[in-house]
Amino acid sequence: MPPTAKRPRKQSRPKVIPKAPNSGAKQAKSGSQKAGLAKRQGGDTPRPHIHRLDDPIVSLRMELSRALRAGQARPPRSYREWLERCLIIPDGKYRGLRFRVDRQPVVGLWIDAIDSGQYTEFDFTAPSQFGKTLIAFVGPLLYHTCEIAENYVLGVPFADMAADKWDVDVKPVMQASPELRRLLPSSGSGSAGGKVRDRITLRNGVEIKLMAAGADDAGKAGFTARVLGVTEAARFSSSGTSSEEADPLRQLRARQRSYEDSERRTYVEGTVSVEEELPWALKRISTDSRICTPCPHCEYWITPERDDLLGWDGAQSENEAGDQAYWCCPVCGEKIEEEQRKSSVLEAQLVHRGQEIDTQGRITGEPPDTSRLFFRASAFHNLFLSAESIGKDEWRASQIPEDSPERFSADRELCQFVHCVPYVAPMYAEDLVLDKKAIGSRRVELPHLILPADTRWLTLGCDIGERKLWYLLLATRVDADGKIYRHIPAYGDIDVPSERMKLDRALIEALSEVHGLCQAGFVVDGTSDRRQPDQEWFDCNFETDTVLGFVRAISTELALPSAKKKYQPWVGAYGRGADKLTNARYTVPRKTGNEVCDIDPAGLWYANRIRRAKTIATIWDSSTTKWQVQQALTLRAFGVEPGGADVQTPGSVTLYSGTSKIHERFAQHVTNERLETKDTGFRGKKRAWVRHGANHLLDCFAMAWRATERAKHIASKQLYLPPFADQTTPAESNDLEKPGPSSAKTQKSWYDRE
């Protein structure tokens, strides 16, 4: 090192001064220095803050602050945000990708409707492989259980499908998403080693209760939840014959009864089958929404259907049909290219029943006042399939011979799985066309319970059930030319108080109420006279001994002689016909004997002695009678005379006056059972009665109709006075209880009318 060079100084490390045990003075000094600095900077002098850890109040406050910080939770995300940020497609063409609305744009309308909070029930239907299982079944299930963390009732068609629905539809979605994967059950039902039965508990403590449509009624009770989801909804349309409760969907809805209607959420998802089944059956009592898209040519907002897919029908081969198939605008008829269709669907809007949309996309009109949303997407809105694919399907179906079972099957497949419309079986010439609206509108200016002045026969039909007793009164009129007209002055139901007493006693109480109504009489229009029914028929196919015992008890009031008991007006009735419920066919006996005491000349009913009940019952042809009833309902109620006046059509049926909706239930009942013709292939056509819902009033109507023929038959024996010669009722007749040889005075009885 040179002599002039200075040795560099060794840098010393800062000394660490250990804190003294009692450093309060230094802390105070430091605090005063900070206070002086703050004062020089213009701030207020802070007070020293001393935490005393030995103070229980301070400790409690600290622990409470820590708990509050740890317990802070974000509010639930919207359904759209949750889907796009959390859900990952587990399989298919977009496997491993996050869910995006623009792949199937119209589902955004469904998602936004859920987030809007305007509705409490959401009914979803779309073509097969549209994505409805993910967006309308799995999505709502996982959103409510994983995001909102609340219990969920899940309805599946059959109990043995519960495991399949979990393993195939729900579990793969949870496994594909990192956020949902951690909530999978670690043990028990639904876990890797657990068998799915009727309940799945996620790791966040939320329970999913699985309930089957085919389970017994007790299997649907005992669980409460705010949210309900149903998949494959058609199976929930009606209860089985072993169930005496409401349909399965209503039974599941009962699990939500502890919540107000505005708090509940219900999701119904399924493929369209027929009009009478879910989800299509809910269409008329919902928003009945339609998806409208702008036409790229005329700019009208349109909803193309199956008839708007053209070009394929003139092709000579399958590939040619695909090349030539295209969608067209139902307004202007112009061809809509595939790219134009996609652009149009991106602008889709949801328009409810009663609303209109103009060319600018502005929606006007008030939507239905309902909290049930009905959402339906058609083949035009399904961007997963091009017009080429659908055109090939249509062409292949058209090559199958018409009126063959294979053709019916192909048409059903296209309706349900491609175009999402109910399948309607082809109509044959012998099938009746029943219009519910026309049936309910055949009203006359006669109030309820008032008979037409020219009533000739008055009969009652009564159908009996465990909870309800249904009745219908039929007035048959005959004019001077012998033409027959029919009028229904009353019908309805009476509650059977089976929940308060034994069933047999409850039925007798309800039957007595109907019988008492009849014996009080019905006022004839324009007079003060009261008319009692000539015949009262009570159905005996349910609780037979109870009904026959009631008929025997009330028939003793008539005190008819033994020879005339076969003409008693109050009888039990057995309907027999070719239906699927009873499988009992009607056969008319050839002659009377010890059991058969009277036979209809036309062979449509006969009277039989029921020895164990010591009374008379009628066995009648229900199939033929229902056919005659429905034929009369197809006739126009009124025609126009040459002078311009409205007159009732001979043979037609009219109803009592009221509002336009007063007879909706009657119209529904009389059309719920129909004689349908089906092609069975090599066996040819087969006709059978098919029931689509409650038909109690149809049974009552048919009974009253056939009872009229019995009243005419008894009058034809000329055993009694001419019609209306004596209107004395049984309660007023002093000679009624004097059986035996006739005196000089003609003996009066119940049939002192023709």
From TrEMBL:
UniProt feature, compositional bias: Basic residues: 1-13
Coiled coil (residue ranges): none
One annotated GO molecular function: ATP hydrolysis activity
Protein name: Phage terminase large subunit (GpA)
UniProt xrefs under InterPro entries: GpA_ATPase, P-loop_NTPase
Organism from which the protein derives: Aureliella helgolandensis
Phage terminase large subunit GpA ATPase domain ranges (all copies): 98-346
Region (Disordered): 1-52, 237-257, 725-754
Listed Polar residues bias regions: 743-754
Pfam families found in the cross-reference section: GpA_ATPase
